[in-house]
């Protein structure tokens, strides 16, 4: 399973998301949206305007979503 967390610096919801993934033992990659223009374009094309955006198993969502993280475990 591939999990990508599109994040930005000093983002409280981003930190909560990565901590929840860590707690569930789910591995992930973090992409900094402030440093990666193509990633920023991708998430805005998906319609998101806030971080984090999580992409997993072909699905994606925005914000801290413990319900969605639990489905990955």
TrEMBL record:
**Which Gene3D superfamilies does this UniProt record tie to the protein?**
Glutaredoxin
Q: Where is the Glutaredoxin domain?
A: 3-61
Protein keywords: Disulfide bond, Electron transport, Redox-active center, Transport
- InterPro entries, per this entry? GlrX_NrdH, Glutaredoxin, Grx-like_ET, Thioredoxin-like_sf
According to the UniProt entry, the coiled-coil residues are none
Entry-linked Pfam families: Glutaredoxin
Which GO biological process entries does UniProt record here? cell redox homeostasis
Q: Can the keyword Electron transport be found in this entry's annotation?
A: yes
Q: What does this protein do?
A: Electron transport system for the ribonucleotide reductase system NrdEF.
The family assignment reads: Belongs to the glutaredoxin family.
Kindly provide the name given to this protein in its UniProt entry.
Glutaredoxin-like protein NrdH
The record lists the organism as Thalassovita autumnalis
Q: Which gene encodes it?
A: nrdH
């Amino acid at each position: 399973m591939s999990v990508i967390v599109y994040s930005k610096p000093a983002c409280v919801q981003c930190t909560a998301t990565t901590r929840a993934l860590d707690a569930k033992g789910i591995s992930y990659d973090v992409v900094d949206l402030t440093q990666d223009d193509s990633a920023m374009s991708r998430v805005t094309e998906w319609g998101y305007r806030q971080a984090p955006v999580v992409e997993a198993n072909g699905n994606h969502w925005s914000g801290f979503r413990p319900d969605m993280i639990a489905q990955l475990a």
